[in-house]
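Journal club side-thread
Mid-discussion, someone asked how the predicted structure for our own chain would compare to the paper's figures. Pasting it here so we can look after the session.
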Amino acid sequence: MRILVAGRSGQLAEALRETPGHEIVALGRPDLDLTRSETIAAAFDAARPEAVINAAAYTAVDKAETDEAAAMAVNAGAGRLAAAASRLGLPFIHVSTDYVFDGRASRPYREDDPVAPLGAYGRSKRAGEIAVLEAMPQAVIVRTAWVFHHGGANFLRTMLRLAETRDEVGVVADQRGAPTYAPDLAVALVAMIERMKADGTAAPGGLFHATGSGETTWHGFAAAIFAGAARRGLKVPALKAIATADYPTPARRPAYSVLDCARLEADFGLRLPQWQDAVERCLTRLIGPPHE
């Protein structure tokens, strides 16, 4: 199957390109720009896809606070991509985020829980969800969270970089979520596309949550990264637990970002691996296997 992926250089697009079994055509700006319908039409004409995954987004969470119009233009532009897929009757998956929730829950968020974005980025991603479903009611929207990868800029690679130069690193310990390895998410998205292609209009649609299994804090995530790095012979710093208030950012982050992924398993038979296992696999890819 030829799958058009909107987004070329992001973590998920990179992971999708590495996923075997299908021809992945990943296009980003200027060749495919969610704010410009003519580029979408041209991309569809050139790629002639059999399915579409939207991994393109404005993801600068803090910058969006002072540039909401740009974030909205890109992220709500996902509706244009969904409309193009709908006209051709193609399976379509749009990737969204935990930032559509306010983080005040005390149990994992389900797909039908009320949304209440805390900032501009979350508002723009929620606008994208609405635009997609308005353009294509049978589309699939997959919310994920805390994505990391062996390439690009992400929390895991930042921790490894800080370990090279610091004796102590302070990491927020009062935000909870589920780290999600981009290759694991990519495999799940492709499996969903396969099912949608096979089932046609009978395939499940609507909202789904997909994150690594389990949950932790950013501090716990960092601890697992440093422990894995130490097992591979790297020098690691002391790890200090800090509060969100100790590390102010322009955009407010949800304090609780754990997503309930039961619907993904019930409807598609998919469960992403434990996040700790994913960290180990990512470190092995970056550094090598643990020392004996």
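Post-session note: DSSP finds ten helices and twelve strands in the chain.
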